Amino acid sequence: MLSIAWDPVYAHPLPANHRFPMLKYELLPEQLLREGTVPESAFFAPRPPLEADILRVHDTDYFRRLQAGELTRQEERATGFPWSPELINRDTTILGGTLECARRALASGGVALNIAGGTHHAFRDRGEGFCLLNDQAAAAAYLLARPELGVRRVLIIDLDVHQGNGTAAIFAPEPRVFTLSVHGARNYPHRKEQSDLDLPLPDGTDDAAYLALLHDTLPHLLDEQQPDFVFYLAGVDVLATDKLGHLGLSREGCRQRDAYVLGLCHQHGRPVVVCMGGGYSPNIIDIVEAHANTFRVAADLWS
Q1: Using one digit for the tens of pLDDT, what is the confidence trace for 130-170?
Q2: CA distances (Å), origin 134, targets 110, 111, 253, 277
Q3: Which of 125, 179, 185, 216 could form a disulfide with 195 if both were Cys (CB 3.0 to 4.6 A apart)?
Q4: Around 267, how many Cα atoms within 13 Å sit in the side-chain half-sphere?
Q5: What are the structural domains, with CATH classification, of the chain?
């Protein structure tokens, strides 16, 4: 059975211009339950993370100011969100969900998924692009900080349409974490960081070109890196319908992407945590169905 992190605070109400993207956090679990992809028992409520688990990847001063609402106007604008205590509770809950997913995936040797997460634009000392705290970075650092868990190398596969700049910067000096980012070359962020492997794509990249690149890259990467654990950021802003993405994938192409990535993890016996990342298609059905495909694929593989 899949383990899925979800909490009602994921759909925390925001000002009107932010509410539409948040709808998926309500609709996605409802869809998965309604169609029978997962039972209700698959869902768990995340535990609040320990402060130490956050401070492994975030500066103390930044986190304190974030909690206290003391970001400058410029810092707040960079996050894209107006500050509120509820927003901080939401982001720490999401981070706690990814941490617990990592514990569960490692214990089962399988997969765990967070309905939210993938906040890869959060740096050690600042937030950007709707990301305040970097959940996958915190979970990777948690695993590596506990030698008894046996995780010595981590691979982060970031297939959101935007480069995982915060994650790349956090782990630049960490040889035990390999960061792969496949993203739109001309998309946000305009100033890219350096991942261990960046694969920038031209606007309009279609299913065939995208999938061929993954087939050429991932098997070699798994063989070379021999990771003990994988984090997968499965953003659906790669869809041709996405208003921010500029790539050309179909919903079926996006499903095949997930099937290939998760199939390789399953084939190699690598525990994996999946976070949903971005999705900004004007039709909410495109977003929810593309995300639901990720869970359907995982359910088929680890049934």
Answers
A1: 999 999 999 999 999 999 999 999 999 999 999 999 999 99
A2: 23, 20, 27, 12
A3: 179
A4: 10
A5: 3-301 (3.40.800.20)
